[in-house]
Design goal:
It is built from ten helices and nine strands. It has 271 residues and is of the alpha/beta class. The protein has two domains: 168 residues, HUPs (Rossmann fold); 84 residues. Strands 1-4-3-2-5-6 form a six-stranded parallel β-sheet, with helices on both faces. The radius of gyration is 19 Å and the shape is globular. It starts with a strand and ends with a strand.
Length: 271
């Protein structure tokens, strides 16, 4: 594994004409990240992983400060996985000019997380734009837990005409059905039990809707049931088309999306 501290040095040493898979991360690697990396290793000749805690996607400086970090552990994981390249850029390397730090969204895309985290996806798209403008991988590997994020990144890639394929990897869950997230380490055992209950409840609800589409009307009752849990506060719970995230969906083309606070830790998921 070769470690690069700048995009410029990476570009000088790596032949991006080869089949290269890119896995962008913010560190605190877990089995979800490992799944993305293993998918890249199967499909591509070389795998590049980046670890960069992107400041532009945090609404509050306090959230940026408390984001979990464990670089030494992450590097050991990547060495064991035998990835080819690791990029550890500085903020000044990713954003050499201030105008690169945000990308505007269309009003019709300002739904779900966009409404509750203003500026978040503008920051996510900014960092992806900077990476893909300066690095030319064959594939970018993204996890479906961040489904809205994938949707917006695909739109960016199409708009910018990047010759890069998006590979979506299914959400990796624990035995208790909790979607793996770097933020899970901030939760205590009783909080994890509540997230498990919510995940199982919504997975069951989805199964019921598939059998009887009219049961989608029970979404309000499901909302109330979850929101009554101690230290749980829902931001949104919605059913949308998995194709375009619109409210125009049917029993064969829908996902349930949720964002909620579990003892002040914000979690998202989709089913």
């Amino acid at each position: 594994m070769i470690i690069f501290k700048s995009i410029n040095k990476l570009n000088k040493k790596v032949d991006f004409k080869a089949s290269i898979g890119f896995v962008p991360t913010m560190g605190s690697l877990h089995k979800g990240h490992i799944s993305l990396i293993n998918s890249s290793k199967k499909i591509c000749k070389k795998t590049l992983v980046s670890i960069f805690i992107n400041p532009t996607q945090f609404n509050k400086s306090s959230d940026l400060k408390k984001y979990p970090r464990n670089l030494k552990k992450d590097i050991n994981i990547l060495k064991k996985l035998k990835i080819d390249y690791l990029l550890l850029p500085k903020t000044s390397d990713v954003y050499p000019k201030r105008r690169h730090r945000k990308i505007k969204l269309n009003n019709k895309d300002k739904i779900m997380c966009c409404l509750y985290r203003p500026g978040h996806f503008e920051g996510v798209l900014a960092v992806i734009n900077q990476f893909l403008s300066n690095i030319k991988p064959t594939y970018i590997f993204l996890g479906e837990k961040d489904y809205q994020q994938i949707f917006l990144i695909k739109k960016l890639i199409k708009k910018k005409n990047f010759k890069i394929n998006v590979y979506q990897c299914k959400t990796v869950r624990t035995q208790n059905k909790i979607a793996l997230s770097s933020r899970n380490v901030l939760l205590k055992k009783n909080n994890l039990l509540k997230s498990s209950y919510i995940a199982k409840l919504l997975l069951k609800f989805k199964s019921q809707i598939k059998k009887n589409f009219l049961l989608k009307k029970k979404l309000v009752k499901i909302y109330e049931k979850i929101n009554k849990l101690k230290n749980i506060k829902i931001e949104y719970l919605e059913i949308r088309s998995k194709k375009d995230l619109s409210k125009n969906y049917n029993k064969n083309n829908f996902k349930i999306f949720i964002a909620y606070y579990n003892n002040k830790i914000r979690l998202i998921d989709n089913y």
